[in-house]
Amino acid sequence: MKYLNKLILILFLLFICTNVSAKEINIYLFHSSDCTHCKAEIKYLDELKEKYDIKIYKYEVVHNIENNALLTEVKKLMNDESNYVPYTIIGTTSITGFSDVQKVQIENAIKEYQAISYCDKVGIYLGKVKDTSACNNENNKKEKDKEDSKMTLPIIGEVDVKEFSLPIISIVVGLVDGFNPCAMWVLIFLLSILIGMKNRKKMWILGLTFILTSAFVYLLIMLAWLKIVASFTTIRWLQIVIAIVALIAACINLRSYFKARKEDDGCTVTDAESRKKIIGKVKRIANLEEESENKKKFAFILAILGVMALAISVNVIELACSAGLPLIFTQILAMNKVTKIAKLIYVLIYILFFMIDDIIIFIIAMFTFKVTGISTKYTKYSHLIGGIIMLIIGILMILKPEWIMFNF
Amino acid sequence: MKIVRVSAIWCPSCILMRPIYDEIVKKYNLESEELDFDFDEDKVLPLNVGNKLPVVIIYKDNEEKARIIGEKRRDEIEKVFEGLV
What we know:
The structure holds two protein chains of two kinds. Chain A is of the alpha+beta class. Chain A has 15 helices and seven strands.
């Protein structure tokens, strides 16, 4: 009799476990009958049917006008702008295109939604799902979250923290990233040489060329990071790899802060070879300026090109100096469901504050004909703050990724 | 008394410290020689200044008496000179 009770208990537990995990997951696939990737995905989804309890709804959008209209509405619902098929929705995750990467994303999404209750808003819109309780809970939670994220600040009044989080992170991380000394010395060196020219108009043009080229190069680098990270953002293990990179970068930054604390504040002379190369380039640019009268115009154009080449090489070198922070920032952007335009704006805010110390030094030099320096104490603290930021975000990305998803 | 000031044109700390040392030179009526780490390499190398700039070497009767390395407050610098004057 005792064994019978145990057997019943085990069966009962088994039933609960399987019941919990046997929840049917709806998959909505918008495809085209002429598209090879779509056919490959349809075949893949059919194979997944043997492995998981899934229901697949297919909508051919090229030859069926109604389905095409549905696709447009569903994209609005999902806040998505991509125009490609296959376009797959599982729960609140949308996946565009189909290759090995998307295979992993689809399977991850199925496992994720089997384990949680979620609002299948696309299913409700398409009339495939009647039960809207999950959505109501989610909406209530969102309303509550909205209330929770509201704060009343002196003078400013009521503020929604979630609305402010991404811009604030763009500003803070951009500022900290901008304070690292890697490229600063080149700007100071260039300004010192330009001041020697005593020609304010040329100083403005060459100085602005250096700053704008640096900003443009850094913009390209960050958009490249964003593209890479965005295509893998739903793959959990890749998020963890990026988090580990962030933690390593954090340790490096904190170590250089504690090391610098024991040393004298001052300029550390490193890498004589590359420094000499850059100094040589700048001197050649300056010497171009002393060309004879008739070659002046041609020489000045060469000087501008020289400054652009200098800015490009310095910023590519600097990439290794501060790769941690841009990588994390773009990962946070990718994890937040914001439109492409919004992402570009946040990157531009980041770069504005990344360049702000250079801009200040440049403007002071232009108006006073004197180069000002920023004490290395502050660059030392930028290692500390940068290290702490990367440590916190790296840990959050592993343990609580949803805490850095402000727009979900 | 003589001082040799080793700095670099690209070094922000050197820019910050320059006016302070200019005043010190006036105050103590010092003989002052300025060397650039990159452009006066032949003179700087024998001085073994290390990898932190600026460096100020103080000589008295042609003998090195002290070195001041990196960014320092004005009172810290004056304390060194008071001890040597």
